[in-house]
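hi! just following up on the protien thing from before. the input was this:
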Amino acid sequence: MVIAICGYTGQGVETAGAILSEVLRANGRRFRTWRDFSTIIRGGLTSFEAYVDEDTGGEAPARLHAVDVAVVWDRQAAERYRDRVRHVTGLYGAATVDGVPNANRDVLDPVGFNLWALGVVACKLGLSPEDVQAAAMAHFHQRVNLEPLHRGYAKAAGSTSSGPVQASDAPDTAILSGNDALCLGAIHGGVRIYCGYPITPASEILEYMAAWLPEVGGRAYQVEDEIAAIHMAIGASYAGMRTFVATSGPGIDLMTEGLGYAATIEVPLVVVDNQRGGPSTGMPTKTEQSDLRHLLYAGHWEFPRIVLAPTGVVDCLAVIQEALNLADLHQCPVLVALDLDLALRRISVPWETVNDALMRVPALRGRTVLPPASVHGYRRFAAEDGGLPWRTVPGVRGGGYVASGDEHDERGWMEPDFQSVRPTLHRRRLEKVHCVRYDRPLTPVGSPEAPVCLVGTGAMGELIHAAVAAHPDLYRGVLLRQLWPVPADGLLAAVAGAREVVVCEYNATGQLAHLLATTVPDGGCRTVRRYDGEHYTVEAFLAALEAAGETLHGRVRG
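and the predicted 3d structure came back as:
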């Protein structure tokens, strides 16, 4: 069943969604939520949708267009869902809303709308009123007027024939967003210090780290801006601590100077770009995957970097730990390309699945010398054996060195013979990511015999899964996790034999398709692109794929 609640920012639509999610989790129901909110702090339309599945195995279903029950506050909200409800009897709302059946209307106060809507959808989902009331009281931590909740439940009960659904005996589950999963993975991977600056949609990461790090002996700091955040992270990494920073497009602009500094002094650094619509302030609450070129090339110098992207919520648990490992192993910046849809969607996940994903990635520190070890004749940037240099941290006897952003020699001293160090030290820096030791660059989906291969990453992952499930004889998929360096051999093997390759992405210019065009055979890739800030539903995605198959528009050549 698919339910939706649509009101305005300030009416508590998100609160109703959070309470509903907790009741669904406690009842063992498998679900996935979608959140859409205005860039206006107060007054714009806000929607919460939940896709609930009786099946408790695997990940929750992708977003669907058809809605069974939609609860709306006014005419504008009703217009958003009028064409999406399966039947007009599934539309509920305030007494002033035209088009809502009379039996589904009620006289509502703006403040109590969210609880009334919660009562309606909870009843339709077969959740007991006692469970919903208990969850509401637990959420507010204080006395609250639950009369609208009971009225909403009664309103829906008048048109609901079936009784409450019995709680499932499914395994204990967690409710995770991409941001949640990234924070859990980082903490499990050894992060104990976090410095950040609020920016949508990465602000939750700062909030979660501030709440969770003290429980494991760590600290989170809200600093004055993104420039401070990245340089504090570099300092923490220089001191031997594992850390990362998270921001969005405008913040990445400001952090670019720090990326070059980290690359020059060869200090591990992980930066998460929680992508949203741009440029400039752009669409702060809408999704895009349009920062790829910036992540690949930003900086006024040539320096090595690795770019990863998770392909689902659960995947975030592992990818952030793998990013921390790769940063240590290669002593360079690793950028993680998240996107708003994946970051903010919430799904129900068995705790066993969460634990397995966390435990799958052991911490690897590479050539890092930690106290109380000591070294002799140490040259920080020397690599006599042809590999990476050994990195010391403060406290290692004999391991002190200068970490200068100026070009330097193997000791870290400035003003060397540039003609000597550029062909040697600089060349070594550039070449150290030519052989990235990463064992999950991509994941194939479906039958290798299917003629059309869909390639995507991030929020496109669940849509590709859905398309393959709907048409297994037509589509197969490749969920790309390592964006740079492009895993050419693995990608060629994954698309081998495909009649067509379709790259699916949330941007206007086909950035991922352009990146892959020189790798994919036969001249390039067809593309499916969206850049209006909205998320694809499964139905809209399948329609876009069908349209892409009927036209040469969008073909990208290397």
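The first strand starts at residue 2 and ends at 8.
Residues 313-330 form the longest helix (18 residues).
cheers
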